[in-house]
Design brief:
It is a single chain. The chain is mainly alpha-helical and about 90 residues long. Helix content is about 50%, strand content about 0%. The protein has three helices and no strands. It has helices at about 15-40, 60-75, 75-85. The relative contact order is 0.09.
């Protein structure tokens, strides 16, 4: 429309909890990669909850637990084979 000007919108600062959540995600990712490099796991179970359940949404624990159950069921045969291969004497002092 002629004669009409659009005012630029000033960027807003991110919310405090968003910054904290992002910082926790970055630190968690760093620690995870370091631990995996120094002592690789036999099985990795990766939950796909990053987009759906946030760090402080503790009231959504049932969803996270259900995802954990799904992941274990999906890899149960691999986990059982690894458990059966472990010598129980390795854990006695």
């Amino acid at each position: 429309m002629p004669g009409r000007t659009v005012k630029p919108v000033a960027p807003t600062a991110p919310a405090y909890l968003d910054v904290m959540s992002a910082a926790i995600d970055i630190m968690t990712d760093f620690v995870l990669k370091h631990r995996q490099a120094s002592d690789p796991p036999h099985v990795i179970l990766e939950a796909d909850l990053m987009e759906s359940v946030l760090v402080l949404e503790l009231y959504r624990a049932k969803e996270a637990i259900a995802e954990g159950h799904r992941m274990v069921r999906e890899r149960a045969s691999e986990i059982c084979a690894l458990v059966e291969a472990v010598d129980p004497h390795d854990f006695t002092g």
